[in-house]
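Action item from last week, closing it out:
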Amino acid sequence: MADSAATEDCETRGHPRASSLGELRASGWKPTGVREELRRNVAARIRAGRQVVEGLVGYGDSVLPQLENALLAGHDIIFLGERGQAKTRIIRSLTALLDEWVPAVAGSEVNDDPFRPVSRYARQLIAEKGDDTPIEWVGRHERFAEKLATPDTTIADLIGEVDPIRVAEGRYLSDELTIHYGLVPRTNRGIFAINELPDLAERIQVGLLNILEERDIQIRGHKIRLPLDLVLVASANPEDYTNRGRIITPLKDRFGAQIRTHYPNDTEEELAVVAQEASPVELDGLGVAVPAFMAEIVAEVSQLARQSSHVNQRSGVSVRLSIANYETLVANAVRRALRTGESQAVPRVSDLMALLASTGGKVEIEAIEEGEEERVIANIVGTAVRNVFRAYCPPELLASALESFEGGQVVHTGDDLASNAHVKVLAEHPGLRAPVIAVAGSEDPGELASALELVLEGLHLTKRLNKESLGSRSIYQGRK
């Protein structure tokens, strides 16, 4: 079974049938350490041309090769990066690299390997029952535990403590069976993860030193050695931002690999993440169509925020900002379609006002004046619209659009107007039709309305039209 596992993906193996130690021995099952197990399954994925962790965008040439190296080397890993960089997702995805099932001594709190028992309970049970020792099969997800580090986390939570109830039942304090094991030993033969490691009190971090180096634990002075077989994985923000605590140097030194995560490198990667993560709006009788240029505006907002001197870059601008903004943009378009009775919701520039609500809580503005936050966000959104307008609208078509405003004509837009109202504008201002069609790429009323607003707002932001805002409505007219 161990030989075939090298060429077979770990996710395809089924539940074995052995129910006793004797049956397990007869089946030819061989014990394997968790690091060797991960190494074997990572190698199988690499040979098959698969990513070691599925569903990650933008990490193929940066994070994933480092992760593959760390797992092949059998290292404990710490992921270092700002919020919203998929650190926790990567950690949780590592469970797919474990074997689907492993045998353990039935009733063991620490998933004792039947051939290599480490707890007193398992050793005594095997000594007493021999080949009749009952075996249970532990699934891969039961061999993963996760702890969010907080200042009140204790050694008892992680390592264990003497259980006073067991003492009250008549056991001596010196009896190893009085111990109630914590999360770490209960994850023996698996992966234990600590999120936000710097938030763990330094005296508690000291308690992890032996686990990472000597692979054993000590509880209340008990003379026990519990040689744990596990991989420790942690996540942390950069120390220059995490002022709540730090990772002590001896602990940091014991991690075999430190992997730095990052945000999407460009708009294309940002959009790929949004397409993968955003929740679709599904309502009977209502379709949703998001023009490519509107999706790009959302991604561009995040990209610009990560470069803005008005945004706290130590805090970071999470990809969750793009996801939340995209969902809010669609929601505002859906709300309009429901009110106007349209069968399809198409986001447009006037819907971008709704992003103030979804952006405000996800960026830290470096300003103390009241109202400054909304101004900074509005400026970032405006810059994003201008950049996308320049990319989508052919400059040679803008002259005809501006001619439509030479006689003092005005155009009204708003997030409460139906698409047909914008289509009428094109009939009244033929000069606008050519650039709008070039941007929209179709004759669909919703797409035309969205493209019209992009052209008008782009002309305003490039100082070729004046704009007057009245609540959710806007009036565009020629410059005087």
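Closing note: The longest strand covers residues 230-236.
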